[in-house]
Amino acid sequence: MLKVIKTETEYEDALSHIYDLLQKDLGQNTAEYDELEVLSLLIEHYEKEHYPISSPSPIEAIKFRLEQLGKPTSELTEILGARSRQSEILSGKRKLSLAMIRKLNEILGIPAQSLIADY
Q1: How many structural domains is the chain composed of?
Q2: What is the pLDDT of residues 36-68, one digit of tens each?
Q3: Is residue 94 part of a domain?
Q4: CA angle, residues 48, 49, 51, in degrees to nearest 5
Q5: Are residues 102 and 67 in the same domain?
Q6: Helix H segments across the chain?
Q7: Distance CA 112, CA 29 (A)
Q8: With contact defined as beta carbons under 8 Å apart, do 50 and 10 qualify?
Q9: Contact 61, 96 (CB under 8 A)
Q10: Which InterPro entries match (predicted)?
């Protein structure tokens, strides 16, 4: 029977059970498939409460996205303007302007929400 996960032991058991379910070839309209979906939601709820993940700083988000795309940080010079501006932003000496946030969002696909956070 499915129930809210309250302890670390229950969490570990749920992870083990979900692993077992994922090893099967489940059809979408089966009881086990429904169990997998509900169990996933219960695990997600427990993890949000007990293992929160903080949002990255705008600088971390920029560096991560460049790494994902396989681009060097020098790529920012083309987006933000002068090389000194890129250096100041990556070192935290200069804040991103609204125009820079828009360009980073448009060109690199970094969510604006990640770029407007305090740092």
Answers
A1: 2
A2: 999 999 999 999 999 998 888 999 999 999 999
A3: yes
A4: 65
A5: yes
A6: 8-22, 31-50, 58-69, 75-80, 83-91, 98-103, 112-115
A7: 38
A8: no
A9: no
A10: Antitox_HigA (IPR039060), Lambda_DNA-bd_dom_sf (IPR010982)
pTM score of the predicted model? 0.62
Question: Using CA atoms, how far apart are residues 103 and 90, in angstroms rounded to an integer?
Answer: 16
| Residue indicated by tokens 């498939």 | 33
Query: CB of 72 within 8 A of CB of 66?
Result: yes
Same domain, yes or no, for 65 and 44? Answer: no
The verdict on 87 and 108 lying in the same domain is yes
**Token digits of residue 2:** 């499915």
Question: What is the number of residues in the chain?
Answer: 119
| Residues of the domain holding 95 | 58-115
On the question of pLDDT at 2 being above 90, the answer is: no
